[in-house]
Every structure is written in structure tokens, then in C-alpha cells.
Amino acid sequence: MIALLFDIVGMTGTFLVVGAFFMLQLGKATPTGLLYNMMNLSGAILLLISLCYNFNLASFVIEIFWIAASLIGLYKYLKAKQISAVA
């Protein structure tokens, strides 16, 4: 039962990351937008959680980088939003 729960968490993360990429390709999201970066961050975190049950070093490393890239994107988004609010 616990394995199924971690599989569901991991698959949800996969759908978020892949969904963000498809939305980007379809022009429904921008690479600097909040939606794209939040979907990537959430998906990577969920995938990282799923790796707690069935660890894989390569997957763990790529999810850490995916989280870092998403956090950079969110930082840049919030910084740009802050600058435009002041202007």
C-alpha cells in the first residue's frame, strides 16, 4: 500500500513537469512565468518525495537541479514583478 502511495506522488510529479513542458511548447505558458516555474518546482519536489521510497541517485540529482532551476526562475519572476510594481 505504501509503495502505491509513493507511486501516485511520483506520477503526479511527472505529470506536473511534463505538463509544464507541453504548456510551454503549446504557448500556454512562458518560461519566465509563475505557472511554468511553480509546476516544475512542485513536480520536482513530488518526484523527490517519491525517491525517498525507491532511491535512484541519477533521478535524485536531476530533481535537485530541477528544483534549483525552478527556484531561480521564481526568484527572477518575483524580482521582475517587484520592479514593475515600483515603476
Automatic annotation (TrEMBL):
Transmembrane residues, as ranges?
A: 6-27, 57-78
Recorded hits in InterPro entries, A to Z, give: CBU_0592-like
Does the keyword field hold Membrane? Answer: yes
Q: What are the residue boundaries of the CBU-0592-like domain, all occurrences included?
A: 6-80
Fetch the Pfam families from UniProt: CBU_0592 (PF26604)
Q: Which UniProt keywords apply?
A: Membrane, Transmembrane, Transmembrane helix
The reply on keyword Membrane is yes
Mind telling me what this protein is named? CBU-0592-like domain-containing protein
| Species the sequence originates in | Pseudoalteromonas neustonica
